[in-house]
Design a protein that fits this description.
single chain
Length: 199
């Protein structure tokens, strides 16, 4: 519904901020790391996700697209809701979290808010392969938001296309990662990745 919200930072709380945009105050739940970044500015911009439940509608937002993408990935894991995903992102920095998931470090993941043994195992199991796609755009500057958003989408589609051809998600993600710098179009990425997989 909202791609981003831009306005004046009116209030900072422990787990959310209030952004005033033309007289409307948006309550946006965010991580401690995003809060620290937003506090440095008066006019702020947060990339958002509207989370709907049976009894509520909440806006979650982050100072970068990369953190929003990681939030979405965490939220996609079975048993991990928006609040748990936010707790993880408030406890562990993005780079550290990517390293933890990539290496399968359950003990470090369990240090995050609201994460027990079962949840940590699910996150590692369901995201270990997918994190490669996230990592492809993790170093992109926030100013290139449209490029980052479109690349994430293309990489996902390429991985899905390769898995439909019988490759595992891990094999597909690694192959796409190998050719990511050379191509940006979906068809080109898949063709190049297939050549890499055929070697």
């Amino acid at each position: 519904m909202f791609y981003y919200i831009k306005g004046n930072l009116e209030k900072v709380a422990e787990d959310h901020v209030i952004i005033d945009q033309h007289g409307i105050g948006y309550k946006i739940y965010t991580s401690s790391f995003s809060i620290e970044e937003l506090k440095k500015q008066e006019d702020v911009k947060v990339y958002t996700e509207l989370v709907l439940r049976e009894d509520s509608a909440s806006i979650y937002g982050f100072s970068t697209l990369q953190e929003l993408e990681l939030f979405r990935m965490l939220k996609s894991v079975t048993g991990v809701g928006a609040k748990v995903a936010l707790g993880i992102l408030s406890s562990i920095s993005m780079n550290e979290l990517v390293d933890i998931i990539s290496s399968g470090d359950a003990a470090s993941l369990m240090k995050a808010q609201g994460v027990g043994k079962k949840i940590s195992q699910r996150i590692l199991l369901e995201l270990k392969d997918k994190i490669s796609v996230y990592d492809m755009v993790a170093d992109m500057p926030a100013s290139s938001e449209s490029g980052a958003e479109s690349l994430v989408s293309v990489f996902r589609e390429a991985v899905q296309g390769l898995t439909a051809l019988g490759y595992t998600e891990s094999e597909a993600a690694m192959a796409v990662r190998k050719v990511e710098g050379a191509f940006t179009e979906l068809e080109e990425i898949i063709k190049a990745a297939l050549k890499h997989l055929a070697k």
